[in-house]
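Duplicate of #3305? Posting structure anyway:
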């Protein structure tokens, strides 16, 4: 099972971070992904795979004023 922002997520093991974000319609240009306590650099989204028992934190930046 994979935890995403503290909630269980199924069916994502083996996906790359890029595939996972696209599936969620996440704003790839404005998001930071932490996998098991380590920041995943945007250049690694296409090659970094989600594994069993991973913990992902997704942080989106939103502009405003």
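Output from current build:
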């Amino acid at each position: 099972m994979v935890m995403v922002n503290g909630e269980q997520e199924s069916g994502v093991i083996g996906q790359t971070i890029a595939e996972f974000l696209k599936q969620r319609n996440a704003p790839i240009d404005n998001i930071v992904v932490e996998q098991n306590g380590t920041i995943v650099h945007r250049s690694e989204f296409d090659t970094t795979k989600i594994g069993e028992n991973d913990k992902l934190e997704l942080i989106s930046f939103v502009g405003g004023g």
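Confirmed duplicate; merging threads. The chain has a mean pLDDT of 94. The beta strands are 2-4, 7-9, 31-35, 38-40, 55-60.
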